[in-house]
Amino acid sequence: MKDQSKLVVLFVEGDTEAEFYKLLINYYRNKSQNLFPEVKIINLKGIGRFEAKVVSKLKNDILKDKKYKGLEIKVFCCYDTDVFELAKKPPTNWTKVRKGIIELGIKSFYEIKSEKMIEDWFIKDIDGICEFLKIKKPKKIPKEGLKVLKDLFKASNKIYQKGSYTHKFLEKLDLAKIINSLKGVFNDLENSLNTKEGA
């Protein structure tokens, strides 16, 4: 059943992330025995200018839409951390994003950070990826998810291209395994979706 008092908005940075979070939300929806809120995933097609894009989308697409009027809005920005770790000038100032959201009257803002890259999450279920690609599981698996995926896809005569959702392998991933291995990364999201125990 639907929680008609709440809207959860997820901003993501690319096609791969959009598809992953769509599957993740469906996973939680199917698992939930509580009222489940409306969820909207917005693909911003890149991490640059998140400050302006997030606030603009909320202001023009969400807050002006009558169907969301009066709902408690919870905002999540989901992104890879790799571009922030090495850049002298990070592409997004999260303090500005938070400030802009608060100025719109939205009190709940969260960040879901995939340390380095979201591909590092995917390889938590290396068995599912190998099964999809119909290849044997390698004996040694590096920690760098993007390299692992590229090598595995290459071994299956396919190409993995970051940022593009061109592969159906995400649907084969064991999300429970990934969620458990990430230890709390999705706690705020689970609370917002009423799927956390005690929520």
Main sheet properties: 4 strands, parallel
- Report, as a whole number of angstroms, the end-to-end distance: 15 Å
* Shape descriptor: globular
Gyration radius, in Å:
18 Å
Could you give the order of the helices and strands?
EHEHEHHEHHHHH
* Strand arrangement in the largest pleated sheet: 2-1-3-4
Count the DSSP helices.
9
Average pLDDT, rounded to a whole number, is 90
What share of the residues lie within helices? 40-55%
- The strand count comes to 4
Instruction: Classify the beta-strand content into a percent band.
Output: 15-25%
**Structural class, please?**
alpha/beta
| Low-confidence sequence ranges | none
Task: Give an overview of the whole structure.
This protein is an alpha/beta fold and 199 residues long. 41% of the residues lie in helices and 18% in strands. It has 9 helices and 4 strands. The protein has a 4-stranded parallel sheet with strand order 2-1-3-4. The protein is globular, with a radius of gyration of 18 Å.
Sum up the structure in keywords.
41% helix, globular
In short:
This protein is α/β, with parallel strands linked by helices and 199 residues long.
Note the topology:
Blueprint: E1 2-12, H1 15-31, E2 36-43, H2 50-62, E3 72-80, H3 82-86, H4 94-103, E4 108-114, H5 119-122, H6 126-133, H7 145-155, H8 175-182, H9 187-192
Parallel strand pairs: 1-2, 1-3, 3-4
Helix pairs in contact: 2-4
